[in-house]
Amino acid sequence: MAQSSSPPFVRIGTRGSPLALWQAHETQKRLAAAHGVPLEAIAITIIKTSGDIIQDRPLAEVGGKGLFTKEIEQALFDNAVDLAVHSSKDMETNLPDGLVLTACLPREDVRDAFICKRATTLAELPAGAVVGTASLRRGAMVKRLRPDIEVVSIRGNVDTRLRKVESGEVDATLLAYAGLKRLGLADKATSLFDIAVFLPAVGQGAVGIECRADDTRTRDILAAIDDGVTRTALTAERAFLRALDGSCRTPIAGHATVSGDRLSLRGLIVKTDGSVAHETSREGAAADAAALGDDAGRELKARGGPDFFAHG
Ligand SMILES: NCc1[nH]cc(CCC(=O)O)c1CC(=O)O
After folding, report:
1. What span, in angstroms and rounded, lies between the C-alpha atoms of 142 and 7?
2. Residue 104, pLDDT score
3. pLDDT reported for residue 185
4. Confidence of residue 160 (pLDDT cuts 50, 70, 90)
5. Residue ranges covered by each domain of the chain
6. Is the pLDDT of residue 42 over 60?
7. CATH of 1-106+206-226 among 3.40.50.1820, 3.40.190.10, 2.60.40.10, 3.40.1390.30
8. Which of 248, 267, 274, 281 reaches 20 to 30 Å from 136, CA-CA?
9. What pLDDT score was predicted for residue 47?
10. Residues 41-55, mean pLDDT to the nearest whole number
């Protein structure tokens, strides 16, 4: 086929992990369909981030979430790409000035999956079993439910983590069911946690699309594929996170659902060792998503006190 020399319709920046590529291709497909352009007209540029390069240390230690987005955001500022596709869970609470989270893809299942060869559920794991996770939230919540279980830090992409369970390096791990489904690995989930007992991370299962705030052309292009329900839920969850001002060292969980013009939000903070947790919820108008999230976050911040955040 002859290569067209015309510039692309729009340019996507993404990480190169299998999950990131799924997200970028899904965005590409939806944009092509919405605007009646061929897939090839939507360029995908893979950008390596510090988070991809540093694999041997826990994320919280090396500087947290921004590690997976910084280089891609720089490409936006440099006008090398027009939009960046992220797992919204990995997006910084406060985006750099000049960038906005403009659109979301429809949210996938938000639940955490339990992956284990020795037991069907966390409750059935024998005392002293080892759970490997890179997530402070998952580790803290496992400790809260099962103080007798040992939590160790493991990193790497989804495949690496699954292999560590397969090889017996750890007895079990927890992964976002959304990621497993998107990678065609849903059958790797031994069971799923009920969100009533295991609250997901803010943004879990939602793909967020970021662009330059002043780039009205790209914003218009993205409006055609935006899932408003997901974006409203994310607005509440991210306002909750922002109000808590949590560093990456504070285990925080938050989840909002939108039904018609109503929004429900649950939020939780928990000590890393699982010893203390504070939970709250809000119900209100979906139009007040940001205020509801902010209010819930402020409440938990006050209840936890400075001590809570200082010690994680
Ligand atoms: N931190 C890595 C990450 N970022 C998003 C997902 C899963 C997909 C999603 O939540 O959208 C994962 C893997 C995991 O937590 O198992």
Report:
1. 50
2. 98
3. 97
4. very high
5. 1-106+206-226, 112-192, 227-312
6. yes
7. 3.40.190.10
8. 281
9. 97
10. 88
Q: How many CB atoms lie within 10 A of CB 167?
A: 8
**What's the maximum distance between 2 C-alpha atoms anywhere in the chain?**
64
pLDDT of residue 312: 41
**What is the distance in A from the centroid of ligand 1 to the CA of 14?**
15
Contacts of 135 (CB under 8 A, 6+ apart): 174, 201
Ligand 1 atom nearest 182 alpha carbon: 8
Question: For ligand 1, what atom is nearest to the CA of residue 59?
Answer: 1
- Testing ligand 1's pocket by substitution, the residue of 204, 209, 238 carrying the most ligand atoms inside 8 A of its CB is 204
Which is the closest atom of ligand 1 to the Cα of 108?
11
79: left (phi over 0), alpha (psi -120 to 50) or beta: left
Instruction: Report whether pLDDT(53) > 80.
Output: no
- As a whole number, mean pLDDT of residues 181-193 equals 98
ipTM of the complex: 0.95
Does residue 307 carry a catalytic annotation? no
Instruction: Identify the active-site residue in 52, 56, 78, 90.
Output: 90
pLDDT of residue 68: 83
The topology under which CATH files domain 227-312 is Double Stranded RNA Binding Domain (3.30.160)
Which residues, judged by CB distance below 6 Å to any ligand atom, belong to the binding site of ligand 1? 87, 89-90, 158, 175-176, 178-179, 204-205
